[in-house]
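tool=predict chain=A
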Amino acid sequence: MKLKDFFELHNKIALAFSGGADSAYLMYAGKKYGAQLHAYYVKSPFQPQFELRDAIRLSNELDVPLTVIENNVLLDENITKNTERRCYFCKKRIFSMIKEAALNDGFNELMDGSNASDSAQDRPGMKALAELSVFSPLRDCGIEKSSLRELSKAAGLFTWDKPAYACLATRIPTGTEIKGETLQKVETGESRLRELGFSDLRLRVIEGGFKLQLPEEQIPLALKKRKEILQIFNDSGDDILLDLKARKSD
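tool=predict ok
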């Protein structure tokens, strides 16, 4: 099946929109093939502010209505306990909220931006999507991340080279309770590091502080800007370690 065929069959459909490259291209394709779309973005402590800004920007550029749903995931102990099933409980909560809002707006079908590079076996959240009958047309049509970026670039989408950004909860080791204060420290730290010129980074929570993971080509920059990096974490009283093993993109 091709995306054109999908949108001919599902010509009125809601989109779970993250602001990332995958769901951005799916929004573009839906508009291109004449589907009636409504996008839903769930704002929670797990998402950094820039993701919402990107979601609003793209929905405006493509003229797709966007609804922002507030969701305090920290009220759900199944999520904050941070077990191996955290992603399942989180996806179930988020997509249930989106589905309810979409139904109220007259949309009986819902899709997300999972692509063919996403393995259902490796992602517990995929089970929740299946239980809620969420369509994943990029995955079903065999569109992988690399070709999706090429298609996005050709379409003129600013998200074409946007790095993958897993939610902030992934920075906290499984089994460690997720707290709002920790999430805020991670978001602030990563934001300030991006201001220093770093990208596609991860700030992992460790005992007493954080471990910074960078792509190989950015490690020399970290050494050059060692004092600036130390100052960021001195301000919060946390230790910072640099992982000398290069980070591979998600």
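The chain has eleven helices and seven strands. The mean pLDDT is 93.
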